[in-house]
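Forum: Protein Structure Q&A
Topic: Joint prediction for protein chains with partners

I've read a bunch of threads here and the consensus seems to be that you should model interacting components together rather than docking separate models afterwards. I'd like to see that in practice. Below is the full input, 552 residues plus whatever partners are listed. Could one of the regulars post the assembled result?
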Amino acid sequence: MSQQKPHSVQTTGHVWDDDLQEYSNPLPAWWLMGFYATVVMSIIYWMIYPAWPVGKHFTTGFNTVKYVNDKGAEKSWHWNTRAQLMKDMNDAEQMQKPYFDKVTAASFEQISKDPELTSFINSAGKAIFSDNCAPCHQAGGQGKVGFFPNLTDDDWLYGGTHEKIQETIAKGRNGYMPAFKEVLNNDQLDNLANYVASLSGEKADAAKVKAGDALFHGDAAACYYCHDNSGKGRQVIGSANLTDKIWLWADVPSQDSDEKKVEVIRQVIANGLNRGVMPAWETRLKPEQIKLLSAYVYGLGGGAK
Amino acid sequence: MFNFKHEWIEKNVGLMLIATMIAISIGGLVEIAPLFFIKETVEKVDGVRPYTPLESRGRDIYVREGCYLCHSQMIRPFRDEALRYGHYSLAAESKYDHPFQWGSKRTGPDLARVGKKYSNEWHVQHLNDPKSMVPPSVMPRYPWLLTTALDYSDVAERLKALRQVGVPYSLTQGEYDRNVKDFGADVAKMLHIPDAQKNLIAQAQAGNFDGDRSNVSEMDAVVAYLQVLGTMVDFSKYDNDEFVKFR
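Posted by a regular:
Agreed with the consensus. Here's the joint model:
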């Protein structure tokens, strides 16, 4: 401003404190044109998209979105984000449909033999698994001892066939074991814990193992009723296999002494379990997604024939 | 002829203030006020009910701990959000929220439909120590929720305050009967303010959210609240485009 001659620019005409004045510079023409262009644009926008409230409704604009809903009905609505979402979902579904159709139609055996389907399952399954399963079963499906089962070993509480995995995902599961401190005394709990430790080859007190054996197969504790005479569990009811050195609730592997190993087993027997809750996913995921996920989980390495 | 002069406003700070307020309120009025009159704003849908006393106290703790600073409760109608979080949020689903917890920042995931997605036990462990469940998580730990007994002495007063701003909790027999009609007898019982404490304790006992039945902890309340988020509307009852017509 200092280079300009003071009187070549008009002032707004206000004078404050005797001589304080304000220049009145017109806006540059390019800026004004831009401003008017936005005004014109907004009028065009109002004609295309929902814009102005009118009483209890609003102007909807001329633009429309066409989509097909889950009942197969073709719909056409004025443009709005919800209708646009329906269209976006439709478009993406169309692209995935050939694969999902194959997944739905094929048997699990056919899926595992088809390299194209297998690679689809590995990529789509990973996305679904990460969003829904990984918070509990961890990113690689390795689970968390004490909380959530490992999906990559070949030990399955409820069965590791494709069909059983599918059932578990869709319907969910509820783990339960009574608290035996209600019916057994401390010595009996000790004996049982030693016996259970011995089942998977952990070091245990021989005399206590013998007494525990009798309790396990007798009617006082009746462990055999759920865990089977062999101690290998029954997948129909989800009771654990106690003979395979794989632990979910009692964190045996990370204990550094034999006494502590027996103690963590004793804790589980004494306090029982009312946990191991697997949510039912059939309300969140579509049947074809659950089938795909079953194949993915099976493929993590632990699937059983 | 009325001769307006710029000078009037520039020389009168009171007039300037009023004119400024009028100018900036136009934007808000044009964008917000019509929503109160447009009849499609809040969708017509079954199942949305006010929170039970326990859930409501859990929500208070959610607000107290500032969960909304990192977690939104607003699933927008975009494909990526639909795939990850589920059905987009309806206005009707937060009509009893005062204040709503839509949030504006997602450091963590959206929680609008986290209800029933994970087990109670997962929530307890995760709130206690998030990294133990989700190793890369940056969420802070909230270990005091498990060890702090829930203060429910004023729960009735809190529900009364919500009733004051239009949430249909009942104080009188007439209001109770209205709730039976609107929400069914089971829900109506939970919304009856005179029974609030009794209902809170009963729900915490029955739900056993924190895995310890011997007391009602803050964890009980928070998990009860988290487990109901986004579960009130049964979307399987509706076509998947049912709520398009409300926009």
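The mean pLDDT of chain A is 91.
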